[in-house]
Write a structure and sequence with these properties.
The structure is a single chain. By secondary structure, the protein is an alpha/beta fold. Helices cover 44% and strands 13% of the residues. It has helices at 2-11, 28-37, 56-64, 81-84, 100-112, 138-141, 149-155, 169-186, 196-204, 210-224, 255-269, 274-281, 285-294; strands at 18-21, 46-50, 65-66, 78-79, 89-93, 114-116, 123-125, 129-134, 158-161, 193-194, 229-230. The strands form four sheets. The chain has a five-stranded parallel β-sheet. Strand 6 (114-116) and strand 7 form a beta hairpin. Helix 11 packs across helix 12. The model is unreliable at 244-253 (pLDDT under 50).
Length: 297
C-alpha cells in the first residue's frame, strides 16, 4: 500500500490517465477519489459512472448526452457525464465489462477530446482527467477479442494494482479499528477494544469480499455486541462470501483440502523453503505458519 500511496502522490498533480486494477471490494473507488482530491482539479467536478452496468443506448446517452427526441423517452436535451465533468475528473468503474462497440465509441471521444450528443451532429469539446477501474486482470484485457489494445494504452498511462486484503495482513486490524470508530460514532456506542481471540479470527480469515466484507463485519459486530470489548463470537463473516459444502461433496473438492494440497505442493516445489513458498502463495511467513499448524503439516 505504501507503493500505491507513493504513486498517488506522484501522479495526482498530473493529468495522466489512470487504470486501477484489483478485486471487488479492495477500494479502487477510494483510490480514484484520492487521486482527484490531490490533483489540480480538486475543486472541479468528480463524476463516477459504473459503465459495466449500462446498456448500449444508455452508455452513449449517459456518457455523451442526447438531444430531445433522439430515442424513445428522450423528452428533453441532456448533457452527458463527459460534459458535466469537464474541467474535473471522470471515473469510469468496471471498464473491463463494456462491449467492443462501446469501446470504439469511448476511444473516439478520448482521441478527439470531444463528444457528440445522440441526435446531434455538433461536437462539443471536453476537458476531463480520466480514471478507470476494473476487476478484470490485465492479462484478460490484453485479449483483443475482448478489449481493444489501443484503448488500453489510451486509458493506461499509469496503472495501479490494488492488492486483496488477504495480502495486507498488517492492515486488517488497523482497518477493523477504523471501521469500529466509524460505526460506534454512527450508532452512538462506546468504542471497542478487540480481545486476543477476536484479533486472531480477523487475521486468519481469507476475506473473499476484501475490505468491503471486513467493513460490514465490523458494522454488524458494533450493532450486535454487548459491552465495550469485541470478542471472536461477535465477528460473523458474511454468508454471501461463504462457500457452503454440499452434503455429497467429495473430500478432494473441499476448500480446506484444496488449500492444504496447494500448500504442500508449493512447499515441496521449494524444497521446504518457507519464505519462497509464502511468497508464491501470496502469504506472509506468519500466515503460512498458521496454516501449517491448522492443517497439521
Amino acid at each position: 500500500m505504501r507503493d500505491i500511496f507513493f504513486k498517488v502522490e506522484k501522479i495526482a498533480p498530473t493529468d495522466a490517465n489512470i487504470l486501477i486494477l484489483g478485486e471487488n471490494g479492495t477500494g479502487k473507488d477510494l483510490i480514484a477519489k484520492a487521486i482527484h482530491q490531490h490533483s489540480l482539479r480538486a475543486e472541479k467536478p468528480y463524476i463516477k459512472v459504473d459503465v459495466g452496468a449500462l446498456t448500449e443506448t444508455l452508455f452513449e446517452s449517459e456518457l455523451f448526452g442526447h438531444k430531445k427526441g433522439a430515442f424513445t423517452d428522450a423528452r428533453e436535451d441532456r448533457i452527458g457525464r463527459f460534459e458535466s465533468g469537464s474541467g474535473g475528473t471522470l471515473f469510469l468503474d468496471e471498464i473491463g465489462n463494456i462491449s467492443l462497440h462501446q469501446q470504439a465509441k469511448l476511444l473516439s471521444v478520448l482521441q478527439n477530446r470531444q463528444v457528440t450528443r445522440l441526435g446531434s451532429n455538433q461536437p462539443v469539446p471536453i476537458d476531463i482527467r480520466l480514471i478507470c477501474a476494473t476487476n478484470v486482470p490485465l492479462t484478460e484485457l490484453a485479449n483483443e477479442s475482448k478489449f481493444r489494445k489501443d484503448l488500453i494504452y489510451r486509458i493506461n498511462t499509469v496503472e495501479i494494482m490494488v492488492p486483496p486484503l488477504r495480502r495486507r495482513e498488517d492492515d486488517i486490524i488497523l482497518l477493523a479499528r477504523h471501521f469500529d470508530r466509524i460505526y460506534t460514532n454512527k450508532y452512538m456506542k462506546p468504542q471497542h477494544d478487540f480481545d486476543a481471540k477476536a484479533i486472531e479470527k480477523l487475521k486468519s480469515y481469507h476475506y473473499p469480499g476484501n475490505v468491503r466484507e471486513l467493513q460490514y463485519t465490523i458494522e454488524r459486530a458494533v450493532i450486535m455486541a454487548e459491552g465495550d470489548v469485541l470478542q471472536a463470537k461477535d465477528l460473523i463473516f458474511s454468508p454471501i462470501e461463504t462457500v457452503m459444502p454440499q452434503m455429497d461433496e467429495p473430500q478432494e473438492l473441499k476448500l480446506s483440502t484444496i488449500e492444504k494440497n496447494a500448500i504442500l505442493k508449493v512447499i515441496e516445489k521449494h524444497n521446504g523453503n518457507i519464505s519462497k513458498a509464502a511468497k508464491e502463495l501470496g502469504l506472509t511467513r506468519t500466515a503460512l505458519y498458521r496454516r501449517l499448524s491448522k492443517y497439521d503439516i
